[in-house]
């Protein structure tokens, strides 16, 4: 068994392709929670991702976005009649902004949907520079932390330090699977890896055996594979933002049933008709080894990227390039929108095919707008041209960090009215998106290779040159990441929580999660959400 071969002297373990990896993932998760020792650097990084995700979630609820609101209301309608708010209640957990005990799977689906709704929290691209075998480049996002909090709200032995460690575990399994199997290549949605990680993490926290975790993984993969149909089409729906939540809900249901005795398909990674061997043919083994860390700095979360506002992460290189042009040339002070002749963005696949899709050139919904390169870039450039306060800042700074803060893309930049803004639409019509070919494709998923050029009507050609590691990218060492993220938390916090003191207290509790006891975790997501009078999408 794997647990017999793991030693604290080793920083990594490899789950070999010729073994039962589903069973071994369960063994690894349980062993990690007992003896894993991620460094302080890793824990701090994960803490920042968790805080980021929560501010995204509570602000999405405050502005009454559709799917999170429906799922939270559904959860509250199933609230238990009894139970002290400060004591764990097996089978139950809490949604953002509430002390009601609701079924744990309902809390998980509601909170995970809220976290993902803005498409603004952490991102992984499935790339490990140390090994050419671990560069599959699958996407993924840090949507699954509510699974850990839901477990803590059922088990009095889980304190904040344990919860943060479990979040590292979830990111580790999800991130390492993203390095070895590209779901998007086969039109499968990226949330599958997160669902598998959630089964392992939740199971390890609530006492599941390796066999029960294996059974749940097998059940999920056999019964609940989501396809990228939810991300295709001219106008995207609630299903795009809620995909991770819905898959995680199903995954935890699978684990609950396995812990109650239901037996799902065994050894699913070597099953010839499950997705892994169905799409990557082998003679009997799984198509890949899975390398997982136990201690030190080398955890998957260290290679994950932050979004510094609301935008699809494939656009981060273009946004960085645009802001560098604005900072270096100050052209928005001396020209107007009508001075622009053409905007050209050169990028890589899959960015060219996803956010450069011609179907995304005319978004009518927020979900389509935040996946439209021309809309995202056009909105930021429109703000730079038209906001007087930004011009005042630009006259007095040479700091790119200040530009990122000032041009922060907020939820209001994707409102019903913003999506129809005439100046933005004018800039969108002037924007061309070009595939950079092999030169660009070969640099992804290591980086986000992009170039932005703006041709003005007087003949001037402004060129960002090649951007590889934009601010927020794990390999970017120049930006003031903490400062820019603090700005993001402040902007989203103002939307979610009316009182400044309460905003600060909520942030401090999240930022000190590793010092909290279980009683504190019972209310960690409770805050007085300042609900808008109507949905941002109306």
TrEMBL record:
InterPro entries: MmgE_PrpD, MmgE_PrpD_C, MmgE_PrpD_N. GO terms for molecular function: lyase activity. Residues 317-504 form the MmgE/PrpD C-terminal domain. Residues 27-282 form the MmgE/PrpD N-terminal domain. This is 2-methylcitrate dehydratase. The lineage of its organism: Eukaryota, Sar, Alveolata, Ciliophora, Intramacronucleata.
